[in-house]
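Long-time lurker. I teach an intro course on protein structure, and each term I like to show students one example going from raw sequence to a predicted 3D structure in token notation. This year I'd like something fresh instead of my usual example. Would anyone be willing to generate the tokens for the chain below so I can use it in lecture? Attribution to the forum is fine with me.
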Amino acid sequence: MNGVKTITKSAIFLDRDGVINRERSDYVKSIAEFEFLPGATQALKQLNQLPWPIIIITNQAGIGRGIITETRLNEIHAYLLKEVALTGGRIDAIYHCPHTPQQQCSCRKPRPGLFLRAAQDLHIDLSRSFMIGDAEKDLLAAHAAGCYPIFVQTGLSNELPGHLSFPTQSCANLTDAVAWLIQHIRPVYNA
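-- Reply from a regular --
Happy to contribute to a lecture. Here you go:
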């Protein structure tokens, strides 16, 4: 095959803060400040019904602002992975952007850089993938990457932006988003 890898996998992308854990206006800076949203770990367990990679895509500007270190973020993510696994769920990869908005990087949502990196690393077909997020920047990044966006109302802003020019599914929380995916998407993609 001349070393070319076929890209056929769909994936589920999730934002972290406001989707999996309670979002804080002052950043989650430690394991003690990391609080799972109600039902989030069970919803992640339910995602196992779809044999697709489950990937977190998260902006973490607290690193760029000097509020949290990469080491501390890695500790938080190790805790997140462990707790999700203990309830029978899984997260296959976590991609984060450490930059502030002022740095104008290509990886910070609403830009699609982290999606593109994950797609290349994990051989994902973004046009057959989905993003669950709680903010306009999540939806815009998903759309820019070619993924179908799903909005959840559990972040700091709980209303779907009304001016979006592309289809977006809206759900109350991660549990409802996962139920929608399993009910509507699995038959279409023959997972």
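Some talking points for your students: The longest strand covers residues 54-59. The chain has one domain: 12-189.
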